[in-house]
Queue: 4 jobs
Job 1
Amino acid sequence: MKGAIFDMDGLLLDSERLYQSCWHRLARDRGLTLPSDFAVRITGSGPKQAHLVLRSCYPDDDPDALTRECMAMMVEREKTDLQLKPGAADLLPALKKAGYRLAVASSSPRDMVLTNLGRTGIDSYFDVVVCGDEVSRGKPDPDIFLLAAERLGLLPGDCYVLEDSPNGLLAARAAGCRPVMIPDLVPPAPEFAGFASVYPDLTAFGNAIL
């Protein structure tokens, strides 16, 4: 293996909990209660799938306007509450030292991705950053990982893809990469055991391959 492609939210950064807090706050403000599987359905999804989830959970709101409202809340939360996931600060330099080429492939907008990678001090480790606004189809379609591998100058099969969400794992498999799940809010489902390696955290993944 020559490359590692990382999701950002919930994988490198402990941000999915902040997102869920914002979505639930928006629901409470509208007198709504989100379903128990909301996190599973929306985590790691591209715009098309996210719109479907938001339409079903916030029936009186425009998904685009609701997303902008959530993003505005997130920008404020991330200024004070954003942290790296355990193991990230050690894994990234270790992979670079071992000769891996590294990429981020995130469904989030590019300005937010670059800001948060810089804010947490890990931006310099990545050779490539690919974001959701650069591809026409989001996760679970494979486009973002195919583009990341292409920009790394590697074949998809030579790249690990590290993800925390079912949508991301499905996209990684469809791209022909090697899927790795590091669970965050969504526990590993049995159906992923057939094609994805599962590690409890980034440290365990690093110990397994380095």
Job 2
Amino acid sequence: MVSLRRSNSHFCGGSIISNDYILTAAHCVIGASPSSVTVVTGTNTLNAGGSSHEVSSITVHSGYSAANSWRNDIALLKLLVPIAFTSLQSAVTLPAQGENAGAGTACIASGWGYTSYPGAGLPNNLQKVSLSVISNADCQASHTGTIFSTSICASAGAGKGVCNGDSGGPLTSNGKQIGIVSWGRPCATGVPDVYTRVSEYITWINQNAV
């Protein structure tokens, strides 16, 4: 879990997938210049610890569309200097292409997003919440925006979910990252949140994280 910063202020999450690439949501970095974003790794707190990394390039999925239910909401950040892996910072395991987590799969979302909405401020300590994968059909029934096959939804009822500031962060299950925080109805209302389904983008990641 990493923190994306502008002028040292957290705005989105991300995850380490190799020593020089960060996986995040396209809507976090669309239109941003690499020099405007820094990545902080190796800490669970926003105000202390960790290492700051400059970004050399940003790759947003060419099919990303905010107007079309944030379709293909995925991006890669290449770091100027590779991360030195330690016990505090290492790469997350990704699923195989097409290795989809089914409804009922236990999962965990993490991030520094608001813990209440409207939020009075971001929490200093990294938060996590236990959720379950919801079928795309059930998820679609709760949303007017389109739930694509490249989306995955998760919920645990009212009071549990992701919020502003969590975007781009990981949804994990059994140590693998199955989702990227994308969009939802703010916040933790009991309506499933929508994530980018990572297993549908492994080929894209492998083609672009080079």
Job 3
Amino acid sequence: MKSTRDRILDTAERLFAEKGYDGVSIREITSEAKSNVASINYYFGNKKGLYLAVFKERMIERARKVQASFWKEIELYENPSAETIIRSLARAFLKSPFSERERILHHKLMAREVNRPGEAFKLFHSEVLKPFYDSLISLLEPHMKRGLTKQQKMLFVLSIMAQIINFHLARNMIISLTGKSYNGQFVDVLIENIVQFSLYGIKGRS
């Protein structure tokens, strides 16, 4: 049985994802979580504290688990090739262990925060995005053309991640356009497509 605190976090994440921060009241959250306003104040301080807790304990933790999966695979190689890095990266995201519900909630809430960046986005950026993307640049840098600027390197990594995020997020669109079921076998096809397309980009810059 989940604790009161976890019930509040689960309910808040769902409602914030569906309606946005301004569209949800504390009373709505407590009503659906079968809790009370005093519990919000006790565990999180206020509505803003609850929203930030959702990012810290749900959004950031999920992202870190995906990143940990990537690093676990990469650490098997002393000098991983660009192909290995990109394949491991795509596999970590497209074969993440999260449920469909978690995936949808995560992307809905992140989309809202990206469109209207606030303190939660700054937190996600400093704790997850910037360190991870910088580390990807360091990993892929030996495979890039010499003399590229920092911005060019970041844009290259962003291009790889854009493919991965799109294939992870736009599942229904991919199904409708390809006529394929989004199953393990087709995910393997998507991963190889990301790898080969990205390698062409690296070769074009080398």
Job 4
Amino acid sequence: QVLPQLLDIIPEARLNLIIYHLRAPNGDPQEAFNLLEGVEPSQPREHILKAVVHAVVGQQQGDGGGARESLQTAEQLFHLVGASASECDTIPGRQCMASCLYLRKQFEDALIYLKSIKAYFSADDDFNWNYGIACAAIGDYKEGQQALLSVHNPKYRSEFTYLSWLCRCLVLNGDPVSAWEVYTRQEPTSDTFNLLHIIANDCYKQGHFFIACKAFDVLERLDPDPEFWDAKRGSAVGVFQ
């Protein structure tokens, strides 16, 4: 209520209002993006804030051209700060370089920076989310699972990206039953169907045929695709081998 009245009086008011829209439960990232029009970054923290806004909005926009442009802008701004002589050895600088590499999907390189600052963010949900997914993306499923289970924000824990990576880690770490339990706690949606598909395929590949059979059985009842029947039959044979 107060900050909008101060936008043209105190420069920091605009920055704080942008942060509010990024972090508050009832905040609006698109409004944060609109507020950026009045900001010409001159300090590292302002470049970082602009990068974060572009990254958030770009991810929300999906696969459109505007999304790619926003993510590219975020990547460039993160690199600008992370590679600068004054910031490259600071914690924010390393976060920025990790974020740049993360957006490029260069997860192995991103982890070099994330591991260097991990001790400072052991209880940070945002860090554990990014660290866990980066670990899982390079095949370190044990470390990835540990980091993802350290995320406590209910909103984060309900997102499909989180659930799919967590279930993959659980299955590949030899705990398909827990992955199945994660699925059964979800409300039926298209994302839940996709999650079940991931669990079914990963369990089949890893030889966890009982859970694979259960998953393909549900998939077949939801969508009578002959491939699901064949996979269920193959899983059943695997159970009795």
